[in-house]
Amino acid sequence: MTPIPVIIVAGFLGSGKTTLLNHLLRNSGSARIGVVVNDFGAINIDSMLVAGQVDSMVSLGGGCVCCAVDVSELDELFDKLAHPNSEIDVIIVEASGLAEPKNLIRMVVGSANKHITYGGLVEVVDAVEFDATRTRHPEVAQQLRLADLVIVNKADRAPASVASLVNEVRRLVGQIPVVATTNARIDPTLLFDRPKRQKEIGAQLTLDDILRDDHDHSAENHRHLHDEYESVSFASTAPLDPRALLELLEDPPPGLFRAKGFVAFAARGENRKFLLHKVGRYIRFTPMRWAKGEQRGSQLVLIGTGLDVDAALERLAATVHDDAEPLHPQTMLGIGVYV
Ligand SMILES: Nc1nc2c(ncn2[C@@H]2O[C@H](COP(=O)(O)OP(=O)(O)OP(=O)(O)O)[C@@H](O)[C@H]2O)c(=O)[nH]1
């Protein structure tokens, strides 16, 4: 079972977290989303009801996700959601307005549950309120730097200043990708994959299908959504230099948000296949065996926003170890840190 990514959505009151959650639920495609929220009142559950997901909705007892709940309770929720029968593909935890995402990240990364993995922190910023929020809470900049993706929402309400605001946020957060949105409409594939699931033959069009935002699927909008992010695919039959790959992952090209795939390394005696999962600064390698007859090699996909595709490909190509002579086994040490 591939670990289920747990995505944390945070942001100040009223910035658009629930709007984002509803948008993701409506446009999840074949992906099944498990949500952890404090209050279901505002969540559009229709789309989940018809998808049979209502069982996987779990509310945390009273109060804010990370203050009132200890780790064991959140772990219990993850156990429930990550149960193979639930067929959940992604879990989204909405931090309440003032909840400190840091603790949530710690809970997810430190969870004993082997079936989940950290899927990144999305910080939602209100384009209209940002300056005022920053004056009142100077620590907001620090908080944003924890994010793996920053969404500057309500672009429609600040059309004249949104571009400069995005630049200002970029200056604050450095390499972290920043996107401007209206109604938090980001492309869900930026955050999670839509698995190929065969629909039952003769299955009726579900309410889910009907409810799906028409808007997002109009040709114009689609183009717009996809303009916001780039994805780079890379394949190599020659094995990769573990040090070079690590350098790329630890110091990624600006705008890189996710990296996934599998890798064959060029170290002597290293015969394993390494699954790679990276989101923001979080990197994880999972060693596996190659299947019988499987062609050894590496396949990686980088996803980002504002990513320089050619430069990213060039850096990927530079990780290939062309020499027939394998590298010293010690070159794997750095990878071990992320296993
Ligand atoms: N004009 C405009 N309104 C938006 C946008 N996104 C969200 N809103 C509205 O802003 C209000 C707050 O959005 P929510 O999604 O509830 O925000 P939230 O972060 O979940 O709020 P809390 O749970 O109270 O912290 C709602 O009335 C939304 O309809 C946007 O891009 N443009």
TrEMBL record:
Q: Which GO terms describe its cellular component?
A: cytoplasm
The signal peptide here is none
Describe the location of the CobW C-terminal domain by residue ranges. 229-320
Q: Which reaction does it catalyse?
A: GTP + H2O = GDP + phosphate + H(+)
UniProt-listed Pfam families: cobW (PF02492), CobW_C (PF07683)
MF terms in GO: hydrolase activity; nucleotide binding
Keyword field? Chaperone, Hydrolase, Nucleotide-binding
User: Which InterPro entries does its entry note?
Assistant: CobW-likC_sf (IPR036627), CobW-like_C (IPR011629), CobW/HypB/UreG_nucleotide-bd (IPR003495), P-loop_NTPase (IPR027417), Zinc-reg_GTPase_activator (IPR051316)
Which family is it part of?
Answer: Belongs to the SIMIBI class G3E GTPase family. ZNG1 subfamily.
Q: What is the name of the protein in this document? A: GTP-binding protein
Q: Which organism is it from?
A: Antrihabitans stalactiti
